[in-house]
């Protein structure tokens, strides 16, 4: 199969745009959910079993901590989406997202409910399956950070 360099370039451009848009949209939408009581309930097991987050919940309370996390997610998503206007800000948002997704992936280690205990070998539970998608979002954050930094150097 022969593909022209222009077609490959177009495919890359559309792919990166879709990846950036999806990453930003996910962060904004999921951040907004943190202002709902049911989402506070949903993240309770993750926060309770994480040493740093359980300490923060003791200081701020679960509802306020969820809202702080949600506000941070909305800001991060907005920064990532701002790339056409502010590539440096977008790079910063992507790099902060790398840290955020690294911390959420740590819940796979700290949350007993992430693994099914009934099997000899480790098997992800529904909670673990929910968390494992953050590996893709982590990769998207790394890619969008690199692309934004590249474009920031050009301007």
TrEMBL record:
Top-level taxon: Bacteria
UniProt cross-references to InterPro entries, sorted A to Z: RclC, RclC-like
Name of the protein in question: DUF417 family protein
Biological source species: Streptosporangium oxazolinicum
Lineage, uppermost ranks: Bacteria, Bacillati, Actinomycetota, Actinomycetes, Streptosporangiales
